[in-house]
Design brief:
This protein is α+β, with helices and mostly antiparallel strands. Helices cover 48% and strands 9% of the residues. The chain has helices at 2-7, 10-13, 15-24, 32-69, 72-79, 126-130, 134-144, 158-164, 174-181, 196-204, 217-221, 236-246, 260-263; strands at residues 119-124, 147-154, 186-192, 230-232. The protein has a four-stranded antiparallel sheet.
Length: 265
Amino acid sequence: MATASSTARPDKINPAFDVWKRKSGPQEPPGLQKRQSSQRETSTQARKWAPLIFLVGAVCGILLTLLFCSHPTYSRQLSSPNDPPLLQTSSPPTLHERPATPQLSVKPENPDKMSTTEQTFIAIKPDGVQRGLVGPIISRFETRGFKLVAIKLVTPGKEHLEAHYADLKEKSFFPGLISYMNSGPICAMIWEGLDAVKTGRTILGATNPLASAPGTIRGDYALQTGRNICHGSDSVENAKKEIALWFKEGEQVSWKSALESWTYE
């Protein structure tokens, strides 16, 4: 029993110890109360100075904004919309925002634009008529976009042909040329369109069929100069003279092609 009493808890041995422990409460570590007091003082000082710090920051922000806006480069951008933007940023379009539709600019009519009413004289010679090439030759000019304003099948006679080829009268081949042109009917035509004289000569090909490019009338249908199928005016002045020689007043038909808007701008 003596051994058991010697190893028992102190509060069981001395009941006064338990009473003292309940009265004194838990013991705090040394220095804890001093640290808590310091933290409370710091928090109080922070709450005291917070409004002043906020006010100083706001004043500094206003001063910086005024200083930036008074800069000459930025003020010029605000006053002149034509200057290049310095701070302009483009925000990406939102999901429901439709992209801007580009505006189509209408070009003013060019006063130097070549007239679409230029006319040229084209004649299918007797060999072209005899070979049945009137249709294919007309098709070449129509598909290119030219407008037929006059056509007739004629046998003009020797005097008329001599007047037509008056510039070749001194040539050695002149008699043979007149005889050949007077040997059968000739299909005389007036074609109208943009740059009709120059383009018409290109469609016919070179005078010598062997020098004509494939795809031209003479390059596709002729072999010799003496049988080169067709004639075309070589200048606007000569076209006017030839038209006046081959056609009387009132034989031309003035009409508007339904395909004109699809051929010309």
